Amino acid sequence: MDLMKNTQQGPFLSLMTGLPGGGKTFLGILLAAALLVPVLNIFVPESSSLHVPTYLVSLFGKYLCFALLALSVDLIWGYCGILSLGHGAFFALGGYAMGMYLMRQIGDRGVYGNPELPDFMVFLNWTELPWYWYGFDMFPFALLMVVLVPGILAFVFGWFAFRARVTGVYLSIITQAMTYALLLAFFRNDMGFGGNNGLTDFKDILGFDLQADGTRLGLFVASILALALGYLISSFITQSKLGRVLIAIRDAESRTRFSGYRVEYYKLFVFVVSAVLAGIAGALYVPQVGIINPSEFSPANSIEVVIWVAVGGRGTLWGAVLGAVLVNWGKSYFTGAFPDAWLYLLGGLFVFTTLFLPKGIVGTSGIWIEKFKNLRQSDPPLAPRSPVVKED
Amino acid sequence: MLGLRKVAGLVAGAAMMATSALGLGAAQAADDVIKVGVLHSLSGTMAISETTLKDAVLMMVDDLNKNGGLLGKKVEAVVVDPASDWPLFAEKARELIEVEKVDVVFGCWTSVSRKSVLPVFEELNSMLFYPVQYEGEESSRNVFYTGAAPNQQAIPAVEYLMSEEGGNVKRWVLAGTDYVYPRTTNKILEAFLKSKGVADEDIMISYTPFGHSDWQTIVSDIKKFGSEGKKTAVVSTINGDANVPFYKELGNQGIEASDIPVVAFSVGEEELAGLDTGPLVGHLAAWNYFMSVEDENNDTFIKKWHAFIGDEDRVTNDPMEATYIGFKMWEQAVKQAGTTDIDAVRQAMYGQEVKNLTGGTAVMNSNHHLSKPVLIGEIQDDGQIETVWSTDGVVKGDAWSDFIPESAKLTADWTYPFVCGGCEKAMY
Amino acid sequence: MRIEFKTLLAGLLLVFAIQFSAQAQSFDSAAEGLLAKSYKDKIQAVEIIAATGDARSAPLLEALLAGDLFTRKSDKLLVIGNKASGGYDIVNALTGEALGSVKKREVRKIRINNKMRGLIKGLLGGLTLLNDDPNLRLKAADAVFKSRPAEMRTPIEQALATETDPTVTKALERTLAALKLTHAQSSEEQLAAVEMLEGMADPQVKSLLSAEGRKLQAIKDPTDAELQLALAVDAALAKIDEKLAFLNIIENIFQGVSLGSVLLLAAIGLAITFGVMGVINMAHGEMVMIGAYTTYMVQQLFLNFAPDMMNFSLLVAIPAAFLVSGACGIGIERSIIRFLYGRPLETLLATWGLSLILQQFVRTIFGPTNKEVSSPDWLSGTWEVTGGLALTYNRIGIILFAAAVLILLMLVLRKTAFGLQMRAVTQNRQMAASMGIRTGWVDAMTFGLGSGVAGMAGVALSQIDNVSPNLGQAYIIDSFMVVVFGGVGNLWGTLVGALSLGITNKFLEPYTGAVLAKILVLVVIILFIQKRPRGLFALKGRAVEN
Q1: Would you give the distance in Å from CA C534 to the centre of its chain?
Q2: Rounded to the nearest 5 degrees, what angle is found at the Cα of B20, between the Cα atoms of B19 and B24?
Q3: What pLDDT digit, counting tens, does each position of B69-88 carry?
Q4: C102 or C542: which carries more pLDDT confidence?
């Protein structure tokens, strides 16, 4: 972790100055959480009301991964107008890369005691490790793959799609087709990724026991740092000139193209960055939940991510994070408190948000604050309807 | 041997009782309810099957409370909805154990959901009762498997079809949904069939995705495969949802049970309730329980179920019986141990006996699997399944199949001296 | 002379009486044999019952086959039970004496297994070969073909002599040939039978011939006649295989078209709500589901109030599903969608939330389990085009239904005032409004139309798939693929898209398996969209850009 912090020191500082006020607060909260939660988990006795139980640590660790995923979707949807209904695929691929590493770490501690092959391969009569599993016993290689696999897929997919000028709903639907095809592919046991059961039974990561509280905290902190890093990268992109072009593409693609910008390259770049972020989120998610299986590829999951962003506020980076955490917290809470009625509440929330909070929680509250300020200054009232983000 | 284990269990139970009597269990005595976690999907793709099991557990809890509760305490069911989302299963399991502090959990249906929660139960040393037939190859200290293992369903069914009475089947189609249960079962069956001299060309294996709905091609393939002049049967491990369109297609293409019988391991009364079974009469199912079985306990159970659910048309099925047996066993084990402490109850579970609903007695073995009878039945036009064959006694569930070389070596036995879910040698 | 005649008559009567009572006795004792535990004994009993020729044997065996034969637990009496509320009305199976009604658990069903079932069908076949109903005769002929008891040869020959219906004649000929082959009286006869069967290529004949061929090959020192027969069988099998391979292609196309029509039905409503209105309607699948549940409700109504008319419930369900789903659609449009025009991606979010609510709503009301929607008789079974090519009626029905829906929809859009207004509003809302079209009303009706069509798709899907709260989810992605592949806003595109996806899928499936076929189709769609970013039939012009 120290290593990570040091290398991030330089750009971190230079970026901080360019961040908007909300962003600084947000990063502050994240870092405070990274420091406080471990302290409250370890040093505060369980009886105290300030104690953070491990249950909550791993729960929030999971939310943070979702937040990073939401951030990656917001980067392309909120700032570049690319609505991906298949971002879960990049998330899952990152997760699988990490899962494969964790699987190899089990070694001969599997039920059949085979040092080379994961259990599911042993009982499906595989005799040797398929080539695409090579190298995953090394953590650096697995990390590389976490970044490369989603990145390359996004590059290839984007290369074709953006050059062919597939836009709008068509793009959304083919991203959905992509994740659906991957879902079906990973379901197949012949693929060598454990079929429907996916990869489970993980024991440890880098030699640390996954069940240990310390490891959980470590992963939690790593998730926070990854989210903070993702946030910094995203705000760097959106604040830069590049970001202006992206917004121009979102609002008027043809006009931007006619102004001489190679729209497809801008789109491709941000799409790949977003996919890599999603992959990292997936890689952090897997050791915390202990399983990766094809259902992560399901189109419904990807749609849900878009909804988190919409609820939080599209086009505001920390809105996406807020949306992801809020919706998932709601889901966790409602499925326990109202097991029979939670879908009404969740569904109702989505309908309510789109109807009454068109810019999401963050965007709409921003407008209300503006209105409130204007009222205080007794300026003439704003136009009756707030301008909404225009779709293409 | 069994007697010895029982004694060991009793001693351990008594020891626990003594410690709790001495006031060491004060923390537990403070709350006057025993909490039972229910971890079944109430929404999403699996709600179709799992909701019934949630209701079954609620019914059992209700019944228990009416009869004065357990250890003088009220029993309370804590229901959560893991929404057919596998990582959510793990999260909810942790919530039940850590936050709700439940004493036992009844739940899961799919293998993947069980795999997902397994580490949680092992880490927090809690107890899960898993009520569905499954692929075996597992025995966790923290899970009791009350559904059938492959040797309690698949092998007897195939043996029956090979017999004179079952139609002397010589040619086999193994059709399944592409996931671990059908894969393992088919692997076991393939090895078994070959050991009985069935040639390679007489076995056809086909896998389909979950929720497969267009069965035209596969059913006509089956028809063609069956036209080679040898008696052919289909062994179906097709999962829940996909069965209805599969059977509809079978019926429409006019494949009758007397031509090509289909024996299914995942089709029970509940699945048949969504079908017009007229064209399916005579197709087979292998389970440990059928609603049609005439038995006093079964009648009582069905009556209670109808009263509880408020609908005379609702059916009962095998996983419900497995839930019933599991719940009863847990109840008895808690009474025997005098506490809900996980380790004490676990010790008391071994050798625990419950009258099952088909006559006879189910016994919990030290490999955490049950000994149960195996029934083979034919589908009737009223959606019921009538027994046509059953094992003479009970069959002991095998955690590790003898037909998979790597697993044949392994033994599961959680009592001394083995104390292991999958070892080649005893631990002690 | 007179005395002689009298004694003769008396003697004859006596003989008759003895024979009759012996027959009656053997029938009664054989019927008792049905109470045996082992299926072997029961099979014997069934054979004896059929052999007695007693008039009571046919109804008894029919009851046994239908599962209506019981034994009363109190006195082990054999009774025939008819379902009544809470139990059965029973009559004595041997005497026909009515015995009142009993509770379910007071009687025990006489169980039969598949082997017995096949046997009884064959035996009953002998008894119904001369029935007035040609369908029953056909079934009888087929049943005898399957079980092939040697003693059926004469009855089949007799039946063939009097048979007038061509289909039944053919079936009888097939059965006779099978009997001649398996219970040969001479080798010439066998050869003739093989020749006869060669012309009737179907899987069952193939099965029979393969079995014969295998038997012949197993003979160690075959005679010339046997060798000749073996060669003839081989030749016949080769010919049949050739014919079946050709029929296989036709079957594949049919299956592809039928899958295509399912896709078309599922997608065509979406082609309106999404294609024409631009609403990304994620609740489309739920409209289909509501249609399927409406079918279930209509069927329940028929079951309770007009059980004799059950066969027509589906016809009533079609408009009912259209109305119910359509009304839901209008409700949704008025309460939610109309606030979101111009923001298509937000309609996605709202309708997604809505689909969650609708699923849970249906789950709450109907329960999470599958509901049974039975097929009417006229949609059950297969149509034997020729031997070896059997098309199922329900698939044919769905193809015709899809075509009908498409044509109707086209007519509505092209030929009615509403269709004109709808197209006007889609193309230029302001202009349409200033021409006096109530755009709000048109929007609501259009959405209602799309939803209603989805509901009708639900009626069709209830015939082939689960009726469960998850029904819609299974089709939503495929529907979007079809609409986008075909080109948004174009019904022809939807048609071509659905059919080409269906047929491609079905042609790939035998080679790749169901899963890979589907994956390949998805990849094809993704690549195709790169080539034609706006689908097969793209709308052209300025309107497209916005």
Answers
A1: 38
A2: 80
A3: 999 999 999 999 999 999 99
A4: C102
From B110, C474, B82, C472, select the one nearest A342 (Cα to Cα): B82
What's the total number of domains in chain A? 1
Quick check: is A324 in a domain? no
Q: In chain C, positions 300-339, which contact chain A (CB-CB < 8 Å)?
A: 336, 339
Residue pair A48/A137 in contact (Cβ under 8 Å)? The answer is: no
The two three-digit tokens of residue C246, written as one number: 């050709």
Amino acid letter at A46? E
Amino acid at A217: L
A156 C-beta neighbours (distance < 10 Å), count: 11
- Looking only at the bridges linking them, the beta strands covering B128-130 and B143-145 are parallel
CA of A8, closest CA in chain C: separation in Å? 36
Q: Which CATH superfamily is domain B17-148+300-373 in?
A: Response regulator (3.40.50.2300)
Domain ranges of chain B: 17-148+300-373, 151-292+376-396
Q: How confident is the model at residue C449 (pLDDT cuts 50, 70, 90)?
A: very high
The pLDDT, as a whole number, for residue A222 is 94
With tokens 């509501």, the residue in question is C290
CA distances from B138 to A119, A120, B115, B124, B405 (A): 11, 12, 10, 19, 15
Q: Judge contact between A124 and A186, C-beta under 8 A.
A: no
DSSP B93-125: HHIIIIIS--SEEEE--SHHHHHHHHHHHHHTT
Q: What residues of chain B score a pLDDT lower than 70?
A: 1-31
Give the ipTM of the model, two decimals please.
Answer: 0.86
**For A55-91, what is each residue's pLDDT tens digit?**
888 899 999 999 999 999 999 999 999 999 999 999 9
Split at pLDDT 50, 70, 90, the class of A112 is confident
Question: Is residue A390 domain-resident?
Answer: no
Q: Which residue has the tokens 């879908």?
A: A343
pLDDT at A5 over 70: no
Q: How far is A54 from chain C (nearest CA, A)?
A: 31
* Mean pLDDT, rounded, for C388-411: 91
Nearest Cβ partner for A184 among C519, C526, C545: C519
Tell me whether residue A354 is in a domain. no
Beta strands in C367-526 (DSSP E): 382-386, 389-392
- What is the distance in angstroms between the Cα of B107 and the nearest Cα belonging to chain A? 14
Domain membership flag for residue A30: yes
Task: Provide mean pLDDT across the span A315-339.
Answer: 91
- C342 CB neighbours in chain A (<8 A) are 391
Q: Which residue has the tokens 């951030």?
A: A71
| Secondary structure letter of residue C276 according to DSSP | I
Rg, chain A, Cα only: 22
Q: Which two tokens stand for residue B5?
A: 């284990």
Query: Which one of 1.10.600, 1.10.287, 1.10.3470, 3.30.2310 gives the CATH number of domain C247-541?
Result: 1.10.3470
C-beta atoms of A54 and B407 within 8 A:
no
pLDDT computed for residue A392 by the predictor:
41
Size (chain C), residues = 546
Q: Do A358 and C346 touch (CB under 8 A)?
A: yes
| CATH code for the domain defined by B151-292+376-396 | 3.40.50.2300
Check: CB of residue C432 under 8 Å from CB of residue C424.
yes
Q: Is B363 exposed, middle or buried (0-12, 13-18, 19+ CB in 10 A)?
A: buried
In terms of pTM, does the model score above 0.90?
Answer: no
Averaged pLDDT for residues C113-128: 80
- Give the residue from C45, C507, C545, C2 showing the smallest Cα distance to C256: C507
Query: Residue ranges of the domains in chain C?
Result: 2-112, 129-221, 247-541
Tell me what percent of the residues of chain C surpass a pLDDT of 90. Answer: 28
Distance CA B22, CA B43 (A): 45
> Quick one: what percent of chain A has pLDDT higher than 90?
50
Give mean pLDDT, residues A193-199: 90
Beta bridge mates, C386: C389
